[in-house]
């Protein structure tokens, strides 16, 4: 996570995810500050596990279909070592899951997914995503009938005709 200074009198900085690393060697690493500078504060958080679920295939499809697949990182402000830091809580590739998190009031930002992750996500989508068949909707009938005649009569009565 990266704290970026802003030229604003209302908000001195903005937190955002800088990168999602796919490094198994970092899996057991505790959260740690990588750079502590007023102009550039960076923290590393590890231990996130990514699992793809077939019932979430539509969300993955919506991500891949954009042409620029990305990670969705949900984070919250917390205090670590006496410093207020943006701490990532969830990392997903599902557009739908990210939307649900945002609907719940969570902060979610995106980070571009590397080509290898994007390709594997495309393969998963091809294997598991089946779009819902489009259903024909029956158009309402406006050709008359007793119900329509009743509505017209009530409408005229309401307007003093």
Output the keywords:
161 residues; alpha+beta; 7 strands; 4-stranded antiparallel β-sheet; 3-stranded antiparallel β-sheet; 4 helices
Give the helices and strands, then pairings.
Layout lengths: L1 E4 L7 E4 L15 E6 L2 E5 L12 H8 L5 E11 L2 E10 L2 H9 L3 E6 L2 H14 L17 H13 L3
Antiparallel strand pairs: 1-2, 1-4, 3-4, 5-6, 5-7
Helix pairs in contact: 1-3
Q: Could you please describe the fold and organization of this structure?
A:
By secondary structure, this protein is an alpha+beta fold. It has one domain. 27% of the residues lie in helices and 29% in strands. It has four helices and seven strands, in the order E-E-E-E-H-E-E-H-E-H-H. The strands form two sheets. The chain has a four-stranded antiparallel β-sheet, with no helix packed on it. Strands 6-5-7 form a three-stranded antiparallel β-sheet, with helices on one face.
